[in-house]
Amino acid sequence: MSLLARLQTKNDDGMNSKKVESPKKAVPVEEPEAPLPPIQKETVEKPKPVRVEEPDAEYLELKNLTLKFILKERKDEDIEDIVVDMDEIIHDIIQENDHIQNIGNIERLKTELKNDLTGYGPINPLLLDEDVSEVMVNGPKHVYAERKGKLSLTDVTFRDDDHVMAVLEKILSPLGRRVDESSPMVDARLKDGSRVNAIIPPLALGGPTITIRKFAKDPFTIHDLIRFGTLTEEMAAFIQACVEGKLNIFVSGGTGSGKTTTLNVLSSFISNKDRIVTIEDAAELQLGQEHVVSLETRPANIEGTGAVTIRDLVRNSLRMRPDRIVIGEVRSGEALDMLQAMNTGHDGSLATGHSNSPRDMVSRLETMVLMAGMDLPIKAIREQIAGALHVIIQQSRLNDGTRRITSITEVQGMEGDVIVLQDIFSFKQSGVGEDGKIIGKLVPTGIRPQFYEKLEQEGIRLPASLFMEKE
């Protein structure tokens, strides 16, 4: 029996089971029914910080004396040698200060001193934990960590705001950046490339706030993304062909959706013979090619001058004879310079931007071009976008915390005054598992892209079956 016949039979059975009865005379209700109880609103309790045993005055004094001794007497020695001698140093200081006697947790003291000297204070264990992908410091007493896409409150605490500021200064000083009342916001990076954002009082009312997005020690490869379920093997082959075929690709998505990771993977497909210029606010890309020039923006100095924006760097990069331009994030007037570069021979450029869908990304690009201060008609801007971009990769962070590529869309050109977009691959959700994980898969839409011939001219051949859904 066919699916249509089964559905018809089911509908007939349902109709037969419902017999139409003759209308009955209404019976008056003598007593009114009791009203339904009011719906009680579910109260969501705020997470309570994990109680940590507060160190006493003697503990803090011993810690401060130890730090002062190290900074004064052994500042020129290697930190590793100091850590080895930590027991002896603490013992000598206790002997010299008779009033310090009852220090219960010496091991905790040594761990804290080691973290302060060799790392970034209390959050150092979180930064070393490979399962942690993001660390958020909301003042001295609330530190959150993200594991497998889920946030949780940790038992890590700082002494006070000054302690948080000391760790922040340790992060910023090697980079030549600063944060103070005159400049209370800053973007930076750690030595391993992890992204750091900080905002301090008076803008941050709850105390200094630090957000650290960690990067893997070894950059993720396309095989890692396939294993994570971010994309399929068919999509991976298609994306690789697009990069090798020098198509202009834009990666769009929300905050924390994995745009930079995807951009890093896309960059790995660029030929080792190409001269690559990367432009970022804080250098995060980890390219393995030999001929790479990395450029980074610079904030204004204390006098409010000397700022170098992404737009300035995009303009300058055009004079550096790049084969490929990779822009970490497009968010303002640099969109116009990027589109002009893509339309003037710099094929194979890559960039990212924030949006909820490929259509939204096109609209945002129109707005960003207008932010450049050029009074261009909308149709001219859309023609620039349609002529510059070939592919938009949409990245999303789903409700279960996983990061997926939800669509790969071709920019087919203009039809009247509208930019025509066509999905080549899209994510189809089929349900939610018992563990809360979203069940779904990335499937081709059955449409072959218009630039298929361009790829063939570059010597890149993709099987037609790549664009057909497997049964």
Automatic annotation (TrEMBL):
Residues 9-28 have a biased composition (Basic and acidic residues). SUPFAM superfamilies: P-loop containing nucleoside triphosphate hydrolases (SSF52540). GO terms for molecular function: ATP hydrolysis activity. It comes from the Bacteria. Pfam families: T2SSE. InterPro entries: P-loop_NTPase (IPR027417), T2SS/T4SS_dom (IPR001482), T4SS_GSP_E_ATPase (IPR050921). Residues 118-395 form the Bacterial type II secretion system protein E domain. Residues 1-50 are annotated as: Disordered. Belongs to the GSP E family. This is CpaF family protein. It comes from Salinicoccus roseus. The lineage of its organism: Bacteria, Bacillati, Bacillota, Bacilli, Bacillales.
